[in-house]
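Entry:
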Amino acid sequence: MLKIKTPKKGRVKRELEKRAPKLVETGKKTLLLQGTKTSNTLNAVLTELYLLKKGSVVRYTRKNENIRPFESGGETSLEFFSLKTDCSIFVYGSTSKKRPDNLVIGRTYDHQIYDLVEVGVENFKPMNSFAFDKKLAPQVGSKPFVCFIGEGFESVEELKHLKDVLVDLLRGEVIENLNLAGVDRAYICTAASSNRVFFTHCALRLKKSGTIVPRMELVEIGPSMDLIVRRHRLPNDSLRKEAMKTAKDQPKKKVKNVSHDSIQGKIGKIYIPDQKLGDMALPNKSKGVKRERREGKRKNDPNKHASKKQKEDSM
């Protein structure tokens, strides 16, 4: 039997708790990899993705020969790297004569390959090629808008799948409340045809509009590129069913003597037990109280505590 080791140090224990399954997931980490052959365009694309997702991304710059995502047996290395880095999204770049400037974007569930989308990169423009005010540069960790324009994202199966993957890749950490002052960027994806998507990155500029709500302008800051959908693989039905499981909402415990009213709000009843003042211990025992107790005892039993004068009269 395998021996199960428990962490002895607090740092290791906290790290394992972060990797443990959660009912509500936070942001997903991204893993950037490259194959045996890459071009200058692919290296620039991976570098730009690393800068855009700084803080929640891991990049490996070594060449990987055994990674073939769409072939059986070529996913072992990807699953190993996913388990090692605790990343649930990966971007793998490679180039060949048949598929130049090729990017494979995939997701994993329980460190197993969930789905894959393969796209080709064309007309790439890095951030350095755009002239804009450096004050408009997005801050690290800011929350972006993700906008999809075109009917193809709702009707074409390949584009629908690409939309789901891009949302997970770009949205960052999942939050409940949002401050509009911290939203300073937008990713815009436009479906030009059934297999071509124009991707660009813009900064949001707030201007006066004469009202409380400011007027927004988009300033293109890059990168921008054309994504050509080549191949995609949907998840298995059994794996999809297992990944889509959600925890049942636990019923709230009924609180006694508490009710809710639409006008008064939360109403509670408080029950106070009877106060027995006679049994309470007094903090200060004054002499007057002692004298009253002695007199009360004499009245109840006069023969027991009789004074000397009373004893002489009786004799």
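Residues 27-234 form a domain with the Rossmann fold fold (CATH 3.40.50.10480).
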